[in-house]
Amino acid sequence: MESTIKNFQANAGALRKCASLSRITEEELERVLDKIHKLKTRITTLKDTNTNLTEPTSCVSFGNDIQTLRVPGTEAFQAPCDYKFAGEGWTVIQRRVDDSVNFNRTWEEYTNGFGDLRGNFWLGLEKLHLMTKLRRHELYIQLENFQNETRYARYSDFTIGNEAQSYELLTLGDYSGNAGDALSYHQNIKFSTQKRDNDNYNRNCAVIYSSAVDSEVDCKNQREDIQKELVEYKAKIDQMKSTIKNLQANPGALRECASLSGTTEGELERVLTKIHKLQTTITTLKATNNIDCNKQMWINPTEQTRCVTFGVDIQTLRVPGAEAFQVPCDSKFAGPGWAVIQRRVDDSVSFNRTWEEYGNGFGDLRGNFWLGLERLHMMTKLRPHELYIQLEDFKNEKRYAHYSNFSVGNEAQSYKLLSVGEYSGNAGNALDSRDGLGGDAKNMKFSTPERDNNKAFNFNCAAFYASGWWFNRCSLW
């Protein structure tokens, strides 16, 4: 290529004369000269990026140590190599084991890399791009909790775009593992930092998480769900306001109409009372919406949102819409990952409680307790949940009931038991038996002794049983 270019450039005039004699147009000639320039540029690039054959380009030939690697397009750099987690040849691109290194960094820092190669660190987006461009790479994510329980996620084809593409997560390939496929949702998302927002939401998720991430994350879906609720509430409020306005505009006509239709004074008073209740409901809904709108709805990635990664212990969880709270996690009865929402083993804790107490939770997390209706609503709204009920009598005989889709409504819905899903077990399907006797808890609002939402005629089941529950016709199940 160099010889050809040298000959052409030595006599550019002759080249143009030759072009004229052969009837090559001036435009075609310019294309030839442009091609010469591109060939020259390519030669320079090949010279600059030619890799020293004595320097390795990956960790394939190394064990567990920090090694110097070299890939085309960048200077030689050091990277930790690992063979403990998934066999030989893995380059560690990120490690986070504590809060000793701050990951709240700039775009430039995430591009170049930062941290301690033997501790918490980030290898660098530019290196990731060049590595995954040079040859095919897998991605292996190892997770470990404070009880030394581990989970992993593995992807067969991991590729990162260049800086002009904002280091987009181009491919992941096929998933395998037991940690859950959390990354496929982020495929084709550009990288974001606090000062460079590339997510698909109208707020900066990197700012919310005080970190950087290829993120559309759950923040978009969570906010959209909340927004739908707000729209529904607004429509209900507008309808109620219209009804109240019409009725209050002419209360005399309302009484006259009642008289003509044979409506008694007592029935009319009940209508006016209902108007007052509607006004109260509007105020409550507005207050609830304001809380939902203004409260910080985002989850710090370092805070767990469920018990999946824990064994038997009390852990701190955080779900959108609620402050961080403690919950017992259990792996004895039905495998790992269960949050205990109620435990009753004796009468040391009274369950004859108010609506507010059932809303917030009460009792001893290591003994008898109730987690709280508001937390149940937020947890089951965030993601699908199963319900597992373990029963044991004084003879140590056990029964269980398992439901595939447990969901609780919000306070405006009186924490209605929205769904339970499919039943399995040997305790009997008491929550959704569909036997026609009217005792099922499904679709029932929650009742407490001072707030009766059951269907028993003129009878308060919660007061009778001295306990709160989704009572239907005074059957506990």
From TrEMBL:
Residues 22-49, 216-250 form a coiled coil. Residues 50-212, 298-477 form the Fibrinogen C-terminal domain. The keyword ATP-binding does not apply. PROSITE patterns: FIBRINOGEN_C_2. Keywords: Coiled coil. GO terms for cellular component: extracellular space. Pfam families: Fibrinogen_C (PF00147). InterPro entries: Fibrinogen-like_C, Fibrinogen_a/b/g_C_1, Fibrinogen_a/b/g_C_dom, Fibrinogen_C-term_domain. This is CG7668. It comes from Drosophila busckii.
